[in-house]
Write a structure and sequence with these properties.
It is built from nine helices and ten strands. The protein is an alpha/beta fold. The chain has two domains: about 120 residues, Cobalt-precorrin-4 Transmethylase, domain 1; about 110 residues, Methyltransferase, Cobalt-precorrin-4 Transmethylase, Domain 2 (2-Layer Sandwich). About 0% of the residues have low confidence.
Amino acid sequence: MINEIQYTVSMPLFIVSTPIGNLKDITHRAVETLGSVDYILCEDTRVTGKLLSAYDIHKKMVVFNDFNEERVINSVMGDLEKGLCIALVSDAGTPLISDPGFKLVREAASKNITIAAIPGASAVISALTVSGKPTDKFMFVGYLSKKDGKRRNQLADIKKVGEIIKTTFIIYESPFRVLKTLEAINEIFGDIDIVVCRELTKLHEEVLRQKVTVVIQHFAEHPPKGEFVIVL
């Protein structure tokens, strides 16, 4: 085990999955990797700082998010080419899944820099496994458009795909738009059975397996809070 850890830590770029809520949901390998790299790329130093503090990890953090990704990539690539070991994390879950990082990984791969995935928590998989929906095939479509018309068009396209390939669809949504998205689902798909997961692995975790209209009524009466995953 020790030899394996030493070997992996010699790699330049690590994509490290972190907990989606409960701080205990992190692997030994992830903790060891974060404690061994030269520095950590993160979306928000306050969020990642809490995780590092919980595991007594003291490493430099560099902000790397949607707003500065283009600007920071060049300096990160320079460090990787010098031989520094860097870990990329997101605020929660597996990096790059509806989070920044794709452009960095693409650039590193183009320069033949070794990239290692440190697997772990993912809201996509967590929601799918508790949903009760078929798991043999699924399609993750991320966040839908913020614009009402485009969101309805996207859902109409999803419905067409579902008619050709019988699969489970997984959608991310924010508390600010979840009601509009549920109403659009009802409009496009009808009053189907869906699963809505909120705040997975956290203290106020909630999993609703109901008709769309029932879920809409629930969140009309209880203002939505936290991050949502919709499975249909």
